[in-house]
Amino acid sequence: MRKDLTVLAECYANSCVAEMIIDILKLNTRVRHKYVSGRDRILKKITSLYEKSRGDVNILALIDYERGVMRSFIDKNFRFEMTLFDNTLHIGVYKRSQKIIAIIFDPFVEEFLCRSINKFCDDNERKDIKRGDIENVCSRIQTRLLADKRK
Question: What is the residue-wise DSSP string for 118-134?
């Protein structure tokens, strides 16, 4: 029997990337994201779901690594298995369970998007990610990715 996958995203842009992953892999799931979601809430949700399920849970989380001391929770709970895109993206495995994987943007999803698709590089565009219309943000990311595929 196939287990369900819970997908958690920290912000609008992380949610958009998560939606694209779901589409590419043809998964039957949805992204859990709320306006009030933040990295710490996502990390608490991972811990809560893991403990409530007694370790029988499959989670994909898309979170930002942040800077400075904010990195300590990620470092304490995840083991990096792979680093990609000029060190702006890490694939991490939860130290308590290999069933929990995180895509960790270093230091923020904006840096990854700027370097990988040359979008969200200036302050005005970056504000859209945090406070903007999710459909608009996703559309801009997907449009750029599709344009890059055609080259």
Answer: S-S-SHHHHHHHHHS-H
Indicate the pTM of the whole model. 0.85
Give rounded-to-5 percent helix, strand, coil for the chain: 50, 20, 30
Other CB atoms within 10 Å distance of the CB of residue 139: 12
For residue 30, the one-letter residue type is R
Name the domain count of the chain.
1
Closest CA to 17 of 132, 140, 149, 128: 140
Q: Express each pLDDT in 49-60 by its tens digit.
A: 999 988 788 999
Q: Cite the beta strand spans of the chain per DSSP E.
A: 5-9, 31-32, 58-64, 78-84, 89-94, 100-105
Domain with 134, as residue range(s), is: 5-150
